[in-house]
Amino acid sequence: MASLREMQGAFAAALRDPSVACAVLPPENLSVYRNNSAVSFRMALESSFPVVRRRVGDDYFRQLSVQYRERYPSRSGDLHWIGRDFPAFLLEELHGSEYAWLADLARLEWSRAQAAIAKVETSLPADVLGRFAADQLERLVFGLQPSLRLVASDFPIFSVWLANQHENASPVDQSLGSECGMVRMRSDVLEVRPLEAHLFSYLCALQAGAPLGEAVSAAGLDQTTLVSALGFVFTEGLVSSLR
């Protein structure tokens, strides 16, 4: 007699592949479960990647969902994680085509999904810097909000995402070129925001754990842009710790 684990594995395999035999239920009774499973999978993808769906259309998104599920079957009981490999799948599927930008758009949307479940910590005010001596400032390491996600692309994915917050939006001119920006949870709202390249580089360095002096050098900030960048991270509530 098959073990419970073996029966569960056979049932799961039969849900994905009609050619797989299942001892749990006869084939005619599996169709309802198979359909529900496929629909739930696609709806979870649609929830995480609404703008990708809008840009490719419902029919093609259904095709992508089927192909993605075959190549990357879910390994979790939590529907949230179904989309984890979708950007990589689109990169494999669309690499070298005129639609390669959709993989980066999916990466941006998955960053939103991740930011939505990240912890939001109490932010520090700018006057906390006054606790440190002037010669300590360049050695300060900033802890940034856990929900912060930094995304860069060769394509204008932030413009695409912002333009497609409703159905039937017009296409965005891909000749706009590369964009970078951030995604974060703020006051229970997911914020998607493009950034200037120097500010993006500065945040990347800080997030990687570089001391302030190294982050300033990495981003090529002068005194004026440094003051602006410091003001940004504190005004936006991005700093949650200092050491």
Question: TL;DR?
Answer:
By secondary structure, the chain is mainly alpha-helical. The chain has 2 domains: 1-99, no CATH class; 106-243. It contains 10 helices and 5 strands; from the N terminus they run ααααααββαββαααβ.
Low-confidence stretches: none
User: SSE order in H/E notation?
Assistant: HHHHHHEEHEEHHHE
Instruction: Going across the biggest sheet, name each strand in turn.
Output: 2-3-4
Structural class by helix and strand composition: mainly alpha
In helices, the fraction of residues equals 40-55%
Number of helices: 10
Assembly annotation: single chain
Offer a few descriptive terms.
elongated, 3-stranded antiparallel sheet, 49% helix, 243 residues, mainly alpha, 10 helices, two-stranded antiparallel sheet
